[in-house]
Amino acid sequence: MEQVSSESNRHDLTDATTVEGDGEALARGLSSMLESVIKDFDSKAIDTLNSQDKLSGSLDRLVQELDQLLENAPLPFIVQHASRISSVKQRVSSLNLVLKSVQRRIDNIDQMISTNITQEKTTSETSS
């Protein structure tokens, strides 16, 4: 009877260790997946910011050229197009501010996740 009880305890310990190991593996897998998703999003966000910066620069040049054109020949249709372009420029600038804010938030989340992973690794290495 003691032998059965002893075997049962060994199986329970083995099962608990397996579940613990599976949980850690699952956590590492999820962490790795989230890290790759965040890095991918981060890369795309940086590309978008660069594109927005280029667009903003192009709009600035266009507005300057239109201003020079308006000084030389103030035609009504040119004035109308200049105001539309100025409006687009303002919207692009606002969008850039929003994108930069989102990027900062993502960077903060990424840093928090990285810090948490580092702390978990240190804790698991210390307890081993």
UniProtKB/TrEMBL annotation:
Ligase in keyword set: no
Protein name: Biogenesis of lysosome-related organelles complex 1 subunit 7
Taxonomy, superkingdom: Eukaryota
Keyword DNA-binding set for record: no
GO cellular component: BLOC-1 complex; BORC complex
A Gene Ontology biological process term: lysosome localization
Coiled-coil zones: none
Region (Disordered): 1-24
PANTHER family per UniProt: SNARE-ASSOCIATED PROTEIN SNAPIN
Family to which the UniProt record says this protein belongs: Belongs to the SNAPIN family.
Molecular functions per Gene Ontology: SNARE binding
One Pfam family this sequence matches: Snapin_Pallidin
Keyword list, A-Z: Coiled coil
